[in-house]
Specification:
- By secondary structure, this protein is an alpha/beta fold.
- It has twelve helices and 13 strands.
- The longest helix has 15 residues.
Length: 318
C-alpha cells in the first residue's frame, strides 16, 4: 500500500494533487493499491478526486493530534509519500519510527533530509538538494501524465493560443491575460481550473475572441490542440514543454521563477515575469516557434513517472 499525503487548495494550488494523481493512476494500472490523504478539506479538490474515481481520505494535519498514527493504523502503508513541500523533522521521525519508508517530493522542509528518497527534478536549479538522503533529480524524473507521450508533436506556427494558469489561479492572473488578449483582438482558448475563484470578473468577456473552458476532462488533450501556451511556472509549463508546445510563463510563486528561467534558458519558453507585474508585451516580439518546439521536444524525458514508480516499488519491498 502506498499512501500519498498532499495539500491542495485555492491558496496553495492544485499542482501537488494533480502530480500525485498521476503516480496513483500509474500504480493502479499496475494493480497496486494506493490512497491519497488530502490535508485540506477543499471542495474542488474533493470533487476532482471523486470525478476520477480516486481512493482518498481527508484528514487534518494537526501537530497536537496523532493523525499520522491514525492513517498508518487504518491503511497500513508500506511507503508514505509527501507532496506538501514542508515535511518537518518531527513528522519525518514519526513516519520512520513506524517502520515505513518515507518519500518526499520537491520538499523544502527541514525533515526532508530524513526521507529514504527525495524526488526533485527541479533541485539542480532550485538549490534545494537534501544532503542526508538519496535524491532523484533532473528532467528524467519529471512526473507527467501518461497521455503526454501521445500528444507530442512539432509546432511550426503560433496561430492557436491557449491560456492555463493552474487549478486555482490564486492571484487571478487569467483575468489580466484575458484583458490583454481582448485589447489586441487575439483569439485564445482559456482554461479555468477546478478551483478557479475569479468568475465575477468574466461577465463581459468577448466570446468571439476568448473561448472559456472550465474543468476540462483532459488538460493534456487541450494543450495538444494548440501551438502556443501561456502558463504559470508550475507543472503545466513542463507538461506543455514535454508535448513540444512552446510557452510563455508567468511565475505565480517565488519558486516558479527558477522554473521559468530554466525553461527560457533552454530556448523553449519566454519568461514574462511574476504575477504582480507580468510584461505581456513580450508576447508581441517575433518568436521562432519551430525552433522553440524542437528544443522543447528534446528537453524532457516523458517516462519519468515510470522511473519513479519503479523506485517506489523497491522501497515497498524492503
Amino acid at each position: 500500500m502506498f499512501l500519498f499525503c498532499v495539500t491542495s487548495s485555492h491558496t496553495k494550488g492544485m499542482g501537488h494533487l494533480f502530480r500525485v494523481i498521476n503516480l496513483y493512476q500509474l500504480l493502479r494500472r499496475k494493480g497496486l493499491s494506493s490512497i491519497i490523504a488530502l490535508l485540506d478539506n477543499d471542495l474542488p479538490s474533493i470533487k476532482w478526486l471523486k470525478r476520477n474515481n480516486i481512493n482518498y481520505t481527508v484528514i487534518k494535519a494537526d501537530e497536537d493530534t496523532p493523525w499520522e498514527r491514525h492513517l498508518v493504523s487504518k491503511y497500513t502503508p508500506d511507503v508514505w509519500i509527501n507532496d506538501r513541500m514542508d515535511t518537518s523533522v518531527s513528522h519525518a521521525q514519526k513516519i520512520k519510527n513506524f517502520g515505513i519508508s518515507l518519500v518526499t517530493i520537491d520538499d523544502i522542509g527541514k525533515g526532508a533530509p530524513y526521507a529514504d528518497l527525495h524526488i526533485s527534478p527541479f533541485a539542480q536549479f532550485r538549490g534545494m538538494e537534501p544532503t542526508k538522503t538519496r535524491i532523484l533529480t533532473g528532467m528524467e524524473y519529471l512526473v507527467l501524465p501518461e497521455e503526454v507521450a501521445a500528444c507530442r508533436r512539432l509546432r511550426e506556427s503560433h496561430d492557436k493560443w491557449i491560456v492555463t494558469l493552474g487549478g486555482s489561479d490564486t492571484y487571478g492572473v487569467t483575468i489580466t491575460i484575458i484583458k490583454w488578449l481582448i485589447e489586441r483582438a487575439k483569439k485564445a482558448t482559456v482554461i479555468l481550473g477546478p478551483a478557479f475563484g475569479h468568475n465575477c470578473n468574466l461577465a463581459n468577456i468577448d466570446k468571439k475572441i476568448i473561448t472559456l473552458k472550465k474543468t476540462v476532462p483532459s488538460l493534456m488533450q487541450e494543450l495538444a490542440q494548440h501551438d502556443f501556451a501561456i502558463t504559470g511556472g508550475g507543472m503545466t509549463a513542463f507538461e506543455s514543454t514535454a508535448q513540444g508546445l512552446p510557452t510563455a510563463i508567468i511565475a505565480n510563486e517565488k519558486w516558479e521563477v527558477s522554473h521559468a528561467e530554466f525553461l527560457a534558458s533552454k530556448g523553449c519558453s519566454i519568461f514574462l515575469g511574476t504575477q504582480n507585474k507580468p510584461n505581456l508585451d513580450l508576447l508581441n516580439e517575433k518568436m521562432n516557434i519551430k525552433r522553440m518546439s524542437e528544443k522543447a521536444l528534446n528537453l524532457i524525458n516523458v517516462h519519468g513517472s515510470e522511473k519513479i514508480v519503479q523506485e517506489l516499488l523497491k522501497l515497498s519491498r524492503k
